[in-house]
Amino acid sequence: MDASSVPAAPPPAKPKPALGILGSISSAHMVNDMMQSLILAMYPILKGEFSLSFGQIGLITLTYQLTASLLQPLVGLFTDRRPLPYSLPFGMLSTLIGLMLLAFAPSFGFVLLAAAFVGIGSSIFHPEASRIARLASGGQHGFAQSIFQVGGNTGTAIGPLLAAAVIVPFGQRSVAWFGLAALAGIALLLKVSRWYAQHQTATAGRKASTAVAPYPRKVVMSAIAVLLVLIFSKYFYVAGISSFYTFYLIERFGLTVQNAQLHLFFFLFASAIGTVLGGPIGDRIGRKPVIWVSILGAAPFALLLPHANLFWTTTLTIVIGLVLSSAFSAILVYAQELMPGKVGMVSGLFFGFAFGMGGLGAAVLGLLADRTSITFVYQAIAFLPLLGIAAILLPKSVRRA
């Protein structure tokens, strides 16, 4: 038989994302970040219950964000070398413990301890969950990170609504009911961990050491430094919105706590939508344009915000949430492509740095608010998105090795 008559083998099937796993890990991310956002949403209640200053409010955020930020890169570095598929449910268990401590905290010190447990839970969850999202991406890394991230953003968004509906009318101890959501999250993560253990075993022969960076080390390190500057500008600014927006609306426009939390939800929900868009757009047009537009593009709206009336304040924060939130998925995938084979370490570094900047921002801005006013804080942070101009220093694209 003539060799030329032999039909050519069909091209290999293009891998597809494991949507079930992405949906599960995104749902677990929603539960994890919803429980974190309950702390933020409870600030007006805790402030009244324990007679806290704005500086102490910022210290709560600093505690849970720093415990997460300091541990995440270490967790990621360790699991790059020795993956721990079943660590995820233990991370959620730590968050559950923090939630129970928060519900029954008799003093400000116990509130800080509760915040620390929530931070530890996040430090375990995010690096491994981000690795699983990449493993389940089918090559669509931006899309997978966006699906993973939107779960977290959605959880953050619904926290204020749940606080307004449950915690404000029924008090601090009603937080304990949200432990049921944590138990559901643990069940989801057990399923994900089993899938991860099977696929991690199947790919165990692939050594991270064989991965080749797309640029020389000096270029890679410079690009990582620029990305961290962009993370600083984004999360320091977001800390001012997420931690103090309700107080800003109450002080400036005389809203009730519940109405102010509803406006916070609008901002956080817009952030969730922006997260969905950022990753897939980055897959299509490249990460750098998305990073450039999302950080610097928020600057005009941030500069207008402190001078707007209530209607335009709400409108501007929605636009800021949409634009600014599209950055993180693109930044994270860009960094992972700069440092192939180090997904856990890169994810831990960027999630940890983001949390750390959010916590530091909340603490610094809380002290500034005590000494000046909430309105002055919003005028000061409005210039942070201008740091997006630093994106011009990034390599044009990440070349695949």
TrEMBL record:
The chain crosses the membrane at residues 57-79, 99-125, 146-168, 174-190, 224-250, 262-282, 289-305, 311-334, 346-369, 375-394. InterPro entries: MFS (IPR011701), MFS_dom (IPR020846), MFS_trans_sf (IPR036259). The keyword Transmembrane applies. Keywords: Membrane, Transmembrane, Transmembrane helix. It comes from the Bacteria. Residues 21-400 form the Major facilitator superfamily (MFS) profile domain. This is MFS transporter.
